[in-house]
Amino acid sequence: KDERKSKTGQDVDRRKSGVLPSDFGERRTVLQENLEKALKEGYSKENEEIIRRYFESLSKEVNE
Fold first, then answer.
1. In angstroms, rounded to a whole number, what is the distance separating the alpha carbons of residues 17 and 52?
2. pTM of the model
3. What does the domain layout of the chain look like in residue ranges?
4. Residue 52: CB partners within 8 Å, gap ≥ 6?
5. Percentage helix, strand, coil for the chain under 3-state DSSP, each rounded to 5
6. What is the mean pLDDT for each group of 10 consecutive residues in the chain (64 residues)?
7. Which residues of 30-61 are buried (b: 16+ CB within 10 A; e: fewer)?
8. How far apart are CA 48 and CA 51, in angstroms?
9. What's the rounded Cα separation, in Å, for the pair 1 and 49?
10. Cα-Cα-Cα-Cα dihedral sign, residues 30, 33, 36, 37
11. What is the CB-side half-sphere exposure of residue 26 using CA atoms within 13 A?
């Protein structure tokens, strides 16, 4: 049976992390990079699918 693993939280500079570039092409690149980073974290396949859908949703918002 798989056991859950935890990591200690880290402080995040929210002033930088929540801001997307004004250039749409750059926004897509940032979203793609963050998706790839999230998928490398070793989440379960179920959680990876949730993460993918989340980033797809963000990408659609950027394109509007």
1. 19
2. 0.56
3. 23-63
4. 35, 39
5. 60, 0, 40
6. 78 57 71 91 93 89 70
7. bbeeebeeeeeeeeeeeeeeebeeebeebeee
8. 5
9. 21
10. negative
11. 5
